[in-house]
Write a structure and sequence with these properties.
CATH superfamily: TonB-dependent receptor, beta-barrel domain
Shape: globular
């Protein structure tokens, strides 16, 4: 992105966002007396006092959400939390017809960018987040998480050790929230067809099984599948199958039990299948090269043949949540989940582009992974309230166990002349049994990991939550072993207790306007030593533990008159760092070696706005985001952190007719633009991306939808692992969906 483009991005969008915010707030105030408040709907079942661990159901077609549980383990209004959390609603997912999370994160939340295309690997505020959450618990995956049964997506920013119970999240986390079984009978079936012979089926049905005063049972069943041709021959086609479901059981009014689960099979081969143009001067960290796709790395280029490569992934997940009201002021939550991931693949890939810019060195990688994990949580929430203040105390314990075995071999293959559309040496190569493909793998590692933690969190509020003080501490005790199955050497993991914290304050300056401050921390254990005299002598002091620190303050504004006028806007300033970074530097004698440097750093401003404004015979719905930040690495404060995007803006909007001759019709689109990011010694630039969509609903049951993604058909680089190993984004995709609901 050139400097002029960057300036226009900053100068053009920020005033627009501020003006929109002010104009909408003014319009909302002006219409407050004109629009009547909505009347409560008739309940379809007996009224039950909701557990404080449950978010109130919001049956809405807008882009705005009100509550979350991921920020504190109990349901809280977003405006009352000293945390930056953005909720992507079911309506946003529906309008974009999103099949993976990157499609909604691109235009739904500030400060989040994509790191690669295979899985849900994102960068939040300059720090990498490789794993996602499902129902607020960490869920590992080597491919993109399924979206067939996802009701909404929550993005919580900053260190998540205290509230999530997982110490690995520094920049933030993405949480997939599962649809819940409902007492209201209903369901939907949707078929989507599109370019590349794509076909996607998704069906959801829910309703009651038993209804009585003593016991109620609701169910949900989800079925999904997807296939599509791929441009590259080695990829063949997408192939995904999904089956899932859930139960909600209510024992009187004080005890409930929720169960969710799924089985997901993804047999599509989708890897790093492109390579760079390496002509010209070799780039350096101080003189970055502009990343360009090689001329011979066309849309249909493949580094190998389909018959020699495969990637089969089976993923199953189940979780249960027991909620019990023990006393008038005391509530208990017990949670357990189990995950099983079986991954089998043989990767054929490029790795290095030779100096002539067309010969591609390749690798053959047989790989087998088995991952099993269990996680249990127990939380007790007590509320003590007087006329002057209210104190919410939460005590909890988390325990997890993980088993992971990975066998892998990295084998050199004959180099490929990419100017030719053939693989002359591959028949001979693959006719021989090799390590991992008929013979034992060269590397075989077994990990058994354990983690035990306990915490408390206090929410002290005054003046009917006009002033809220939040504080909490969590103690972690990790453990486990790593076993080399080739050498039979067993290494114990650190068994050390350490503590993390989170503090915050919320002040409601006005009933609809709150200001907040938060300070949070993660701790990362390190083992090993620095160097003293020469590289790799490891005679220096031991490595200190790393600290991931966040300082953040911001404003939140909410306003709602009716389902015609509503607004939620946030502005946040953050300063994050990772201290005691292991890197290479001068040992003090002119020799380079392992040192421990000060910090990786990211700081900046974020703006998120979601609103609805009634106008004419319908409603405008808008989500606008803007991010402006800067970063540096520990080794050199002048160098931008890897995958950090200094600026990004997005706008998602639509107009829906609720009356008149066009009733039932909606039309909208989105725009997203971001500045370049450093990936190794290269700078990856990104085009401005446009999406369009239109929908028509009639007869209360039928709906059709058209989506056009990447309208300008841009082909661009997303990530670089090596000169012969890069990822490009999907080009233009057109999808047409038909949905029947009841």
């Amino acid at each position: 992105m050139n400097p002029a483009h960057s300036r226009n991005l900053t100068q053009g969008f920020l005033p627009f966002a501020c003006a929109s915010l002010l104009a909408t707030a003014g319009a909302a105030t002006a219409l407050a007396q004109a629009v009547p408040a909505p009347k409560p709907e008739n309940a379809s079942e007996p009224a039950v006092e909701l557990s404080p661990f449950v978010v109130k159901e919001e049956v809405t077609d807008s882009y705005r959400a009100r509550q979350t549980v991921v920020g504190s383990r109990s349901a809280k209004d977003l405006v009352s939390m000293p945390t930056s959390i953005v909720v992507i609603t079911a309506q946003q997912i529906k309008d974009l017809n999103a099949t993976d999370v990157s499609q909604v994160l691109a235009v739904g939340v500030s400060g989040v960018t994509r790191n690669q295309t295979i899985n849900d690997d994102v960068n939040i505020r300059g720090f990498r987040t490789m794993n996602s959450l499902r129902n607020s618990v960490t869920k590992g995956s080597f491919k993109r998480n399924p979206m067939f049964d996802v009701e909404r997506i929550e993005v919580i920013k900053g260190p998540g050790a205290l509230i999530i119970g997982n110490n690995s999240f520094l920049g933030g986390a993405v949480n997939f929230v599962t649809m819940r079984a409902s007492a209201t009978p209903g369901g939907s079936i949707q078929t989507t067809v599109g370019t590349s012979n794509s076909l996607r089926l998704a069906a959801n049905v829910t309703g009651p099984v038993v209804k009585s005063e003593e016991f109620r049972l609701n169910y949900r069943f989800t079925l999904g599948g997807e296939r599509a041709d791929r441009d590259k021959k080695i990829e063949d086609q997408d192939d995904r199958k999904f089956i899932g479901g859930g139960l909600a059981m209510y024992f009187g009014n004080n005890i409930s039990l929720y169960v969710n689960g799924y089985y997901y099979k993804d047999a599509g081969y989708f890897y790093w299948n492109d390579f760079l143009d390496v002509s010209g001067t070799a780039p350096t960290l101080k003189n970055l090269g502009k990343a360009k796709i090689n001329t011979y790395s066309g849309r249909s280029f493949s580094p190998g043949r389909k018959r020699d490569a495969f990637w089969k992934n089976q993923d199953s997940f189940i979780d249960t949540t027991l909620l019990a009201k023990l006393t008038q002021n005391g509530n208990l939550r017990a949670y357990w989940f189990a995950s099983n991931l079986v991954d089998r693949r043989r990767i054929v890939r490029g790795i290095t582009v030779q100096a002539n810019n067309y010969m591609l060195d390749r690798q053959d990688i047989p790989l087998a992974i088995d991952n099993y994990s269990h996680n249990g949580q127990l939380d007790y929430l007590h509320r003590y309230a007087t006329d002057f203040f209210a104190l919410d105390t939460t005590l909890g314990v988390d325990a997890s166990y993980g088993f992971s075995r990975q066998g892998q071999s990295v084998l050199a293959m004959p180099a490929l002349d990419t100017r030719r559309n053939s693989f002359p040496d591959d028949d001979t190569y693959f006719s021989v049994k090799r390590a991992g493909a008929g013979l034992p793998n060269l590397q075989d590692t077994l990990n058994r990991s354990t983690s035990y933690s306990y915490y408390f969190q206090e929410n002290l509020s005054f003046l009917q939550e006009r002033l809220v003080l939040v504080g909490g501490l969590r103690w972690f005790r990790p453990g486990g072993t790593t076993e080399n199955m080739v050498t039979k050497v067993i290494t114990n993991r650190p068994d050390t207790v350490f503590r993390t914290h989170k503090y915050g304050v919320v002040v409601k300056v006005l009933p609809n306007l709150s200001a907040y401050y938060t300070n949070a921390q993660n701790i990362f254990l390190q083992s090993g030593f620095t160097d003293k005299f020469a590289a790799n002598d490891q005679l220096g002091p031991p490595l200190n533990n790393q600290e991931g620190n966040l300082t953040e303050y911001g404003l939140k504004y909410t306003y709602e008159v009716s389902n015609k006028v509503s607004l939620f806007a946030t502005m946040a300033n953050f300063d994050m760092e990772l201290t005691n970074v292991r890197t290479f530097g001068d040992l003090g004698n002119g020799v380079q070696g392992i040192i421990q440097s000060r910090q990786d750093k990211g700081k900046g401003w974020e703006y998120d706005l979601s609103m609805r404004l009634g106008a004419g015979n319908g409603n405008f719905d808008v989500v606008a985001t803007y991010f402006d930040g800067q970063s540096s690495i520990a080794a050199d404060p002048t160098v931008q952190a890897v995958d950090f995007v200094p600026r990004k803006y997005s706008l998602l909007g639509k107009y829906s007719w609720t009356g008149g001759s066009l009733k039932g019709f909606s039309i909208g689109g989105s725009i997203m633009d971001q500045t370049g990011k450093r990936n190794g010694n290269y700078l990856i630039d990104f085009p401005r991306l446009f999406n369009l969509f239109a929908m028509y609903r009639w007869n209360k049951h039928w709906e059709t939808q058209l989506n056009i993604d990447n309208v300008t058909d841009e082909r661009y680089i997303v990530a670089i692992a090596a000169t012969g190993l890069i990822q490009t984004a999907d080009m233009q995709a057109v999808r047409f969906a038909v949905k029947y609901s009841w």
